[in-house]
Amino acid sequence: MRSVRARAALGATAVVALALVGAGLAVLLVLRANLTGQAGLQAEVVAREVAGQLALGVPYDRLEMRDEEDHPVQVTDEDGRVVAVSKDLEAISGTGTDRVTPAPSTAPASPDGSAPGSGGDDESDDGDGGGRSEPGRGEVDSDEPDFDNGTATVDGETAEYRFASVRATTPAGTTLTVHAGAPLAAEREAVGSVRTAMLAGLPVLLVVVAGVTWLVTRRALRPVEGIRREMAAITASEDVSRRVPEPGSRDEIARLARTTNETLTALEASVERQRRFVADASHELRSPIASLRTQLEVGAAHPELLDLPGAVADTVRLQALAADLLLLARLDAGERPGRSTLDLGVLVHEAVSQRSGDRIAPAVRAPDSGGLEVTGSRGQLARVIGNLLDNAERHAEHAVTVSVRRERGGVAVAVTDDGAGVPPNERERVFERFVRLDDARSRDEGGAGLGLAIARDVAVRHGGRLTVGDAPEGGACFELWLPAAD
User: What 3-state DSSP class applies to 263?
Assistant: First the structure.
């Protein structure tokens, strides 16, 4: 199932179906329990009425039983023998015995041997003219009765009943058990009606839920389809200047559209930078290649006019530019720097010692106690220091200073000169690729404007930063900060 709408509708329908089935079962169970409890209460009332008569000594054949058709009654003694039943009771189950014919028995007698309710003729011997003695009384068990379900056949009709069993003691001390039933037909009918209504309404409700979910999901996903179509058009036309429509809502789809447009904006800027990079690189490569070709063509026609040092210088310049472009390409590709541990102070001393032929010899200030270790690529970090020294020498008047120090959990290298400095509004622009300020062009026509861009990219890849500010001597101060090694 590939459609989100279909999956959402199916999922919502399944959840609602499970919820409705669970709720329906709970309702049926509660309804059945309540109706069964009511039937049990009715049966208990009838059983206690009969038990009360037995406790008063009423003979078995004179027991008054109400609603005998709806409330069948069976009375048994301690031995399980049936001593009394309600009228027209033909069969019974669920009371412990299925007999419905009373065993031969006489009416229960009072403790004094007289018939229940009769008084004696003897008078008391005192002179007070004593009265008659009261007959004895039995009792009805006040404990919770026992309940059970069963069937009974009354006057040819069989039905299910809820039976309550209540114990009673006659005045003669005989313990009897009264089983009285209440019909469960109302409970069965009510539960069946509710179950039928649920079974009939459940499919209709599920269809409604599925349809509503389908419509709501389709409406909610309509902007997504617009975004998809626009993205497909952008892919086909390769025009990253286009944007996807943004819905006016503030939901997740609107945020998705805004994020997509932000991504397209970043992609457009990246493509524009790439185009500008290719154009600038082509322009920078064209000059040394054209100069080298001219010199070679002149040398081929007139060997005596060949400017061999100039050809070598153009070749070196071309080689350096190609190396810079290759390093930038690796950095753009996300190449991770090495994890070697090296002393930044030692690296600075090595870089300065290799520049003996420079116009201005840099002065180095670094502690001798060590503790300047950083983690990274030795070659790339040496390239950064070399680029900073080249930039400082290009702009310095008389002095270039390099200092190394510990600073806030890292190591900082500051390269300063006494030149004209960098204007505040140009301090971020100098780190862009192929950017050369006017002073730089007039001083060095061969610079491609990649040195500082490479230096910052390498610093960022190593978890550090490269910034420019004012030097105490009045020139520029380029400061490289790298996190200290663990």
Answer: helix
Provide mean pLDDT across the span 82-98. 90
Cβ neighbours for 173, distance < 8 A, ≥ 6 positions apart: 111, 138
Mean pLDDT of the region 12-35: 91
Q: Which residue has the tokens 């023998």?
A: 81
In a domain, 247, yes or no: no
Overall domain count for the chain: 3
Q: Which residues have a Cβ under 8 Å from the Cβ of 367 and sit 6 or more positions away?
A: 345, 404, 405, 406
Same domain, 295 and 376: no
pLDDT at residue 222 above 90? Answer: no
Q: What is the mean pLDDT of residues 191-198?
A: 89
Do 375 and 444 fall within a single domain?
yes
- Least Cα distance to 83 among 105, 65, 110, 64 occurs for 105
**Over 60-102, what HEC string results?**
HHHCCCCCCCCCCEEEECCCCCEEEECCCEEEECCCCCCCCCC
Give me 105's structure tokens.
């028995």
Q: Is 124 exposed, middle or buried (0-12, 13-18, 19+ CB in 10 A)?
A: exposed
The verdict on residue 48 lying in a domain is yes
Checking phi first, is residue 119 left (phi over 0); if not, alpha (psi -120 to 50) or beta? Answer: beta
Does 76 share its domain with 155? yes
In the structure encoding, which two tokens stand for residue 332, read together? 């753009």
State how far the Cα of 284 lies from the Cα of 193, in Å rounded to an integer: 90
422 phi and psi angles, rounded to 5 deg: -115, 125
pLDDT of residue 115: 43
Nearest by Cα to 284 from 449, 82, 466: 449
Whether residue 353 sits in one domain with residue 326: no
Same domain, 46 and 5: yes
Write the CA distances from 61 to 81, 165, 208, 475, integer angstroms.
Answer: 15, 20, 64, 129
Task: For residue range 312-342, list pLDDT tens digits in order.
Answer: 877 887 888 888 888 888 887 777 788 888 9
CB 231 within 8 A of CB 244: yes
Q: What average pLDDT score do residues 391-405 get?
A: 89
**Residue 134 pLDDT exceeds 80:** no
Question: For the whole prediction, is pTM greater than 0.85?
Answer: no
Q: How far is CA 481 from CA 271, 344, 399, 449, in A?
A: 30, 11, 22, 22
CB atoms within 10 A of CB 420: 15
